[in-house]
Design a protein that fits this description.
Blueprint lengths: L1 H33 L22 E9 L6 E10 L4 E5 L6 H8 L5 E7 L2 E2 L5 H6 L1 E4 L8 E2 H5 L7 H11 L18 E2 L8 H15 L3 E5 L7 H14 L5 E5 L11 E4 L2
Helix pairs in contact: 5-6, 6-7
Length: 268
Protein backbone atom coordinates (compact mmCIF):
# COMPACT_ATOMS: atom_id res chain seq x y z
CA UNK A 1 0.00 0.00 0.00
CA UNK A 2 2.88 2.38 0.74
CA UNK A 3 4.42 1.75 -2.70
CA UNK A 4 1.03 2.22 -4.37
CA UNK A 5 0.38 5.44 -2.44
CA UNK A 6 3.81 6.80 -3.45
CA UNK A 7 3.16 6.01 -7.12
CA UNK A 8 -0.24 7.68 -6.99
CA UNK A 9 1.28 10.73 -5.27
CA UNK A 10 3.89 11.07 -8.04
CA UNK A 11 1.13 10.72 -10.63
CA UNK A 12 -0.96 13.46 -8.96
CA UNK A 13 2.06 15.79 -8.79
CA UNK A 14 2.80 15.16 -12.47
CA UNK A 15 -0.85 15.80 -13.36
CA UNK A 16 -0.90 19.08 -11.44
CA UNK A 17 2.36 20.16 -13.06
CA UNK A 18 0.99 19.40 -16.53
CA UNK A 19 -2.18 21.37 -15.71
CA UNK A 20 -0.05 24.34 -14.65
CA UNK A 21 1.95 24.23 -17.89
CA UNK A 22 -1.23 24.05 -19.97
CA UNK A 23 -2.59 26.98 -17.98
CA UNK A 24 0.28 29.14 -19.28
CA UNK A 25 -1.20 28.76 -22.77
CA UNK A 26 -4.52 30.15 -21.55
CA UNK A 27 -2.71 33.07 -19.92
CA UNK A 28 -0.95 33.89 -23.18
CA UNK A 29 -4.22 33.73 -25.13
CA UNK A 30 -5.81 36.05 -22.58
CA UNK A 31 -2.84 38.38 -22.88
CA UNK A 32 -3.19 38.61 -26.67
CA UNK A 33 -6.95 39.19 -26.34
CA UNK A 34 -6.44 42.00 -23.83
CA UNK A 35 -3.60 43.68 -25.75
CA UNK A 36 -4.27 47.05 -27.30
CA UNK A 37 -5.27 46.61 -30.95
CA UNK A 38 -4.67 48.90 -33.89
CA UNK A 39 -7.45 51.03 -35.31
CA UNK A 40 -10.24 48.90 -36.78
CA UNK A 41 -11.23 49.10 -40.45
CA UNK A 42 -14.11 51.41 -41.30
CA UNK A 43 -16.07 52.31 -44.42
CA UNK A 44 -15.06 55.96 -44.12
CA UNK A 45 -11.40 54.92 -44.03
CA UNK A 46 -11.42 53.47 -47.54
CA UNK A 47 -9.48 55.68 -49.97
CA UNK A 48 -10.81 56.73 -53.39
CA UNK A 49 -10.42 54.17 -56.18
CA UNK A 50 -7.78 56.26 -57.97
CA UNK A 51 -5.64 56.73 -54.84
CA UNK A 52 -2.67 56.94 -54.81
CA UNK A 53 -2.17 58.55 -58.19
CA UNK A 54 1.25 60.00 -57.30
CA UNK A 55 3.95 59.80 -54.66
CA UNK A 56 3.40 63.29 -53.26
CA UNK A 57 4.04 63.33 -49.50
CA UNK A 58 3.63 66.36 -47.26
CA UNK A 59 4.51 66.20 -43.56
CA UNK A 60 3.78 69.03 -41.13
CA UNK A 61 4.72 69.22 -37.43
CA UNK A 62 5.20 65.47 -37.14
CA UNK A 63 6.01 64.15 -33.68
CA UNK A 64 6.18 60.48 -32.71
CA UNK A 65 6.74 58.27 -29.72
CA UNK A 66 7.02 54.51 -29.23
CA UNK A 67 4.26 54.37 -26.60
CA UNK A 68 1.40 56.63 -25.62
CA UNK A 69 3.11 57.66 -22.38
CA UNK A 70 6.71 57.49 -23.64
CA UNK A 71 9.03 60.35 -24.57
CA UNK A 72 8.97 61.85 -28.05
CA UNK A 73 11.50 60.45 -30.50
CA UNK A 74 10.57 62.89 -33.28
CA UNK A 75 9.89 66.58 -32.65
CA UNK A 76 7.83 68.79 -35.00
CA UNK A 77 9.29 67.63 -38.32
CA UNK A 78 8.03 69.24 -41.52
CA UNK A 79 9.01 68.51 -45.14
CA UNK A 80 7.47 68.07 -48.57
CA UNK A 81 8.42 65.34 -51.03
CA UNK A 82 7.08 65.96 -54.50
CA UNK A 83 6.04 63.06 -56.67
CA UNK A 84 9.04 61.38 -58.27
CA UNK A 85 11.66 62.97 -56.02
CA UNK A 86 14.50 61.02 -54.42
CA UNK A 87 15.16 61.89 -50.80
CA UNK A 88 18.02 60.71 -48.62
CA UNK A 89 17.69 60.51 -44.83
CA UNK A 90 20.99 60.68 -42.98
CA UNK A 91 22.02 61.03 -39.35
CA UNK A 92 23.83 59.38 -36.50
CA UNK A 93 22.56 56.31 -34.67
CA UNK A 94 19.45 57.19 -32.67
CA UNK A 95 18.65 60.35 -34.63
CA UNK A 96 15.23 59.02 -35.67
CA UNK A 97 15.78 57.78 -39.23
CA UNK A 98 13.93 54.50 -38.82
CA UNK A 99 11.40 56.14 -36.51
CA UNK A 100 10.43 58.44 -39.36
CA UNK A 101 9.71 55.50 -41.66
CA UNK A 102 7.64 53.84 -38.93
CA UNK A 103 5.68 57.07 -38.53
CA UNK A 104 4.83 57.18 -42.23
CA UNK A 105 3.37 53.67 -41.91
CA UNK A 106 1.60 54.56 -38.62
CA UNK A 107 3.37 51.77 -36.76
CA UNK A 108 3.94 54.04 -33.75
CA UNK A 109 1.78 56.79 -32.16
CA UNK A 110 2.15 60.07 -34.06
CA UNK A 111 1.03 63.67 -33.83
CA UNK A 112 0.81 66.17 -36.66
CA UNK A 113 -0.23 65.92 -40.28
CA UNK A 114 0.88 63.45 -42.97
CA UNK A 115 -0.71 63.99 -46.39
CA UNK A 116 -0.14 61.22 -48.92
CA UNK A 117 -1.33 62.22 -52.41
CA UNK A 118 -3.72 64.75 -50.90
CA UNK A 119 -5.27 62.35 -48.36
CA UNK A 120 -4.70 62.55 -44.61
CA UNK A 121 -3.17 59.21 -43.59
CA UNK A 122 -4.77 59.43 -40.13
CA UNK A 123 -8.16 59.01 -41.81
CA UNK A 124 -7.14 55.95 -43.86
CA UNK A 125 -7.54 52.30 -42.96
CA UNK A 126 -4.17 50.82 -42.05
CA UNK A 127 -4.36 48.07 -44.70
CA UNK A 128 -4.96 50.64 -47.45
CA UNK A 129 -2.08 52.84 -46.27
CA UNK A 130 0.50 50.10 -45.75
CA UNK A 131 -0.35 48.24 -48.95
CA UNK A 132 0.30 51.43 -50.94
CA UNK A 133 3.82 51.93 -49.52
CA UNK A 134 6.67 49.48 -50.06
CA UNK A 135 9.57 49.30 -47.61
CA UNK A 136 12.77 47.32 -48.10
CA UNK A 137 14.40 46.73 -44.69
CA UNK A 138 18.03 45.94 -43.99
CA UNK A 139 17.20 42.23 -43.67
CA UNK A 140 14.16 41.49 -45.88
CA UNK A 141 11.84 38.66 -44.95
CA UNK A 142 11.15 35.80 -47.35
CA UNK A 143 8.84 32.83 -46.90
CA UNK A 144 9.86 29.24 -47.44
CA UNK A 145 8.64 28.01 -50.81
CA UNK A 146 9.31 29.03 -54.39
CA UNK A 147 10.58 32.42 -55.47
CA UNK A 148 7.38 32.83 -57.50
CA UNK A 149 5.28 32.50 -54.34
CA UNK A 150 7.36 35.19 -52.61
CA UNK A 151 7.10 37.68 -55.47
CA UNK A 152 3.46 36.93 -56.25
CA UNK A 153 1.78 35.43 -53.14
CA UNK A 154 -1.76 36.23 -54.31
CA UNK A 155 -1.35 35.20 -57.96
CA UNK A 156 -1.96 38.70 -59.32
CA UNK A 157 0.83 38.76 -61.94
CA UNK A 158 2.04 36.45 -64.70
CA UNK A 159 5.54 35.02 -65.04
CA UNK A 160 6.52 37.55 -67.70
CA UNK A 161 6.06 40.43 -65.24
CA UNK A 162 7.92 38.56 -62.50
CA UNK A 163 10.88 37.78 -64.76
CA UNK A 164 10.97 41.40 -65.91
CA UNK A 165 11.08 42.52 -62.27
CA UNK A 166 13.97 40.14 -61.50
CA UNK A 167 15.85 41.37 -64.55
CA UNK A 168 15.18 45.00 -63.65
CA UNK A 169 16.31 44.40 -60.07
CA UNK A 170 19.68 43.16 -61.37
CA UNK A 171 19.49 39.44 -60.61
CA UNK A 172 20.64 38.38 -64.06
CA UNK A 173 23.63 40.71 -63.78
CA UNK A 174 24.89 38.59 -60.87
CA UNK A 175 24.51 35.18 -62.51
CA UNK A 176 25.09 33.53 -65.86
CA UNK A 177 21.86 32.58 -67.62
CA UNK A 178 23.55 29.39 -68.83
CA UNK A 179 24.46 28.30 -65.31
CA UNK A 180 22.56 25.20 -64.27
CA UNK A 181 22.35 26.39 -60.68
CA UNK A 182 20.98 29.83 -61.51
CA UNK A 183 17.98 31.18 -59.63
CA UNK A 184 14.62 31.06 -61.41
CA UNK A 185 11.00 31.53 -60.38
CA UNK A 186 10.83 27.84 -59.49
CA UNK A 187 13.88 27.98 -57.20
CA UNK A 188 13.16 26.88 -53.66
CA UNK A 189 13.76 29.16 -50.69
CA UNK A 190 14.59 27.14 -47.62
CA UNK A 191 13.38 27.82 -44.09
CA UNK A 192 15.36 30.70 -42.61
CA UNK A 193 16.61 31.71 -46.12
CA UNK A 194 19.80 29.78 -45.45
CA UNK A 195 20.34 29.09 -49.17
CA UNK A 196 20.39 32.80 -50.11
CA UNK A 197 22.94 35.53 -49.59
CA UNK A 198 21.99 38.91 -48.15
CA UNK A 199 22.48 40.53 -51.56
CA UNK A 200 20.12 38.07 -53.23
CA UNK A 201 17.46 38.74 -50.61
CA UNK A 202 17.76 42.48 -51.23
CA UNK A 203 17.40 41.95 -54.97
CA UNK A 204 14.28 39.83 -54.44
CA UNK A 205 12.85 42.52 -52.15
CA UNK A 206 13.52 45.15 -54.84
CA UNK A 207 11.90 42.92 -57.46
CA UNK A 208 8.86 42.59 -55.21
CA UNK A 209 8.71 46.39 -54.96
CA UNK A 210 8.90 46.73 -58.76
CA UNK A 211 6.07 44.25 -59.14
CA UNK A 212 3.85 46.05 -56.63
CA UNK A 213 4.36 49.44 -58.35
CA UNK A 214 3.92 51.46 -55.17
CA UNK A 215 4.11 55.23 -55.44
CA UNK A 216 6.38 55.49 -52.38
CA UNK A 217 9.38 53.20 -51.93
CA UNK A 218 11.36 53.29 -48.67
CA UNK A 219 14.84 51.78 -48.34
CA UNK A 220 15.70 51.48 -44.65
CA UNK A 221 19.48 50.99 -44.90
CA UNK A 222 18.69 48.21 -47.35
CA UNK A 223 22.19 48.01 -48.85
CA UNK A 224 24.31 48.48 -45.73
CA UNK A 225 25.17 44.77 -45.37
CA UNK A 226 26.02 43.91 -48.98
CA UNK A 227 29.07 44.36 -51.17
CA UNK A 228 29.70 47.33 -53.44
CA UNK A 229 29.07 45.38 -56.66
CA UNK A 230 25.60 44.27 -55.62
CA UNK A 231 24.91 47.72 -54.18
CA UNK A 232 25.84 49.33 -57.51
CA UNK A 233 23.52 46.98 -59.39
CA UNK A 234 20.63 47.78 -57.05
CA UNK A 235 21.25 51.53 -57.24
CA UNK A 236 21.36 51.43 -61.05
CA UNK A 237 18.10 49.50 -61.07
CA UNK A 238 16.49 52.10 -58.83
CA UNK A 239 17.63 54.92 -61.11
CA UNK A 240 16.52 53.25 -64.34
CA UNK A 241 13.45 51.17 -63.51
CA UNK A 242 11.42 53.33 -61.13
CA UNK A 243 8.69 55.37 -62.79
CA UNK A 244 8.81 59.15 -62.77
CA UNK A 245 5.90 59.41 -60.30
CA UNK A 246 7.49 57.06 -57.71
CA UNK A 247 9.03 58.81 -54.71
CA UNK A 248 12.12 57.14 -53.26
CA UNK A 249 13.02 57.62 -49.59
CA UNK A 250 16.43 56.22 -48.70
CA UNK A 251 17.80 55.86 -45.18
CA UNK A 252 21.46 56.20 -46.09
CA UNK A 253 24.44 54.19 -44.96
CA UNK A 254 26.82 54.95 -47.82
CA UNK A 255 27.45 58.23 -49.60
CA UNK A 256 27.01 56.70 -53.05
CA UNK A 257 23.52 55.60 -52.07
CA UNK A 258 22.25 59.20 -51.83
CA UNK A 259 24.68 60.98 -54.14
CA UNK A 260 21.96 61.63 -56.74
CA UNK A 261 19.18 62.46 -54.25
CA UNK A 262 17.09 65.57 -54.87
CA UNK A 263 16.85 66.37 -51.15
CA UNK A 264 18.69 65.38 -48.00
CA UNK A 265 16.94 65.17 -44.63
CA UNK A 266 19.49 65.29 -41.83
CA UNK A 267 18.86 64.09 -38.28
CA UNK A 268 20.30 65.92 -35.32
Amino acid sequence: MAVTFTSMLLWVVRLLNDFEVQGNILERIQGYISIEHEKALTETGKPPAYWPASGDLQVENLSARYSEDGPKVLHDISFHIKSGQRVGIVGRTGSGKSSLTLSLLRCIPTEGSIMYDGVQTEDLNLDALRSSITIIPQVPELLSGTLRANLNPFGQYDDAELNYALRAAGLFALQDELDEGRITLDSKISTGRSNLSVGQRQIFALARAIVRKSKILILDEATSAIDYKTDSIIQNSLRQELQDDVSLITVAHRLQTIMDADKIVSGA
